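Let us work through a complete example step by step.
Step 1: write down the sequence.
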Amino acid sequence: MDYTPIYPLLVFMILAAIVAVEIKDLLSSVVAVGTVGLGLSVTFLILKAPDLAITQIVVEILCLILLIRATIKKDIPSLGKRIDFYRLIFAICFIAIFLAFAYMALAGLPSFGIPYMKVSGEYIRSGLEKTGAANLVGAVLLDFRAFDTLIEATVLFTAVMGVMVVMRSVGRIKDERS
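Step 2: predict the structure and record it as tokens.
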């Protein structure tokens, strides 16, 4: 497999991580950390691991919600100011780069219904005989890849529970300064 499409993504993730560490604005740092996770999920798509990409993007979104909730009241330097022209240009460039990487990742996917790997072809050929399940998708998820599915479900459940614990309002101590 050719790994050259991953190299620009690795550079992008390293630069975003450096920006996240070096920037003084906490909210911008949280967004930079989110771009690292987004780059990782696109990398998983390029490496033909869509299940990992979906898990990564869900966990990344939930972590961003937590981090933004933690930083939104502490640091908002430009809420009332006018829009900075350079920030707008940077945002447009970021969106263009993201769309280019997303196009590269999605263009490499095989057509619908065509098994890309030998393992998936084996699942289709002998799935009914080996599992006895009429639903081939359920047979793959619950028989062939049961541990993988269990771990992904555990990660997603843990992320959702973490967000629910942080976002709850019952039992939270009121801040007298607000």
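Step 3: interpret the result. The chain has a mean pLDDT of 79.
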